[in-house]
Amino acid sequence: MVEEMRSRWVERYPYPARKYIKDIISFEYTDFKNINDPASLRDNYIKFKTDYGYHSPMLHQANVHSSSGAPTWVYVFDYRSENNPRPEWMGTMQADDQVFIFGPGTLMLNDRFRLTDRDREVSDMMRTFVTDFVRFGNPSPQGQLVEWKMFQGDRQSYLQVKRPGKTRMRDYFKTKVTALWTSYVPEIVRRVFNEDDINPFGGSV
Question: Which of 38, 106, 161, 184 could form a disulfide with 102 if both were Cys (CB 3.0 to 4.6 A apart)?
Fold first, then answer.
């Protein structure tokens, strides 16, 4: 099943490069200690899809935005409510932060759940970040909740959002896989086709 999905996925790339890229995926996203374990196969396929579809494009865009001189802030939402109705193996998903900004059920009906006291603390923190950014152009102008440093190419600082008191600045989120999908894989395609205009996330421009 996973092999079939990988084969279909690489079809977005020019034909001669597909085998190389498929081999890269197999090597990077295989747990060789649990090569036939269904949960491991599931988790690594999800990791691959999120690295390619969300993490790498987001960081690629942040680098481009920051390198132009524009103020850039990045956060990774890493908080999960104990009342989250989805299975725990799913962890935090794209748009989970929206629940804590706009409220449960306002965007996705399946995300209606009762907020705990800790959830409300996280919600207050997220709403403060958003409103401060709207008002001042900076999500943490006074550094009251946390000193949120701007994302810059040489440091790539980002805010890891957990509950208040555990939210911390970190550096270099997913830099290896970002380089894989935005630099290494496009370079393989360039060498095969001798082309300059390659979309980092699949095929020719």
Answer: 106
Q: Give the span between the Cα atoms of 54 and 201, in whole angstroms.
A: 11
Question: Do the beta carbons of residue 29 and residue 48 sit within 8 Å?
Answer: yes
Q: State which H helix or E strand residue 115 sits in.
A: none
pTM for the complete prediction? Answer: 0.83
Distances (CA, A) of 124 to 52, 76, 99: 31, 17, 12
Rg of the chain taking only CA atoms, in angstroms: 19
Strand 75-77 relative to strand 168-171, pairing: unpaired
| The pairing of beta strand 157-161 with beta strand 168-171 | antiparallel
Residues of the chain below pLDDT 70: 1, 105-112, 193-205
Whole-number pLDDT of residue 205? 41
CB 21 within 8 A of CB 185: yes
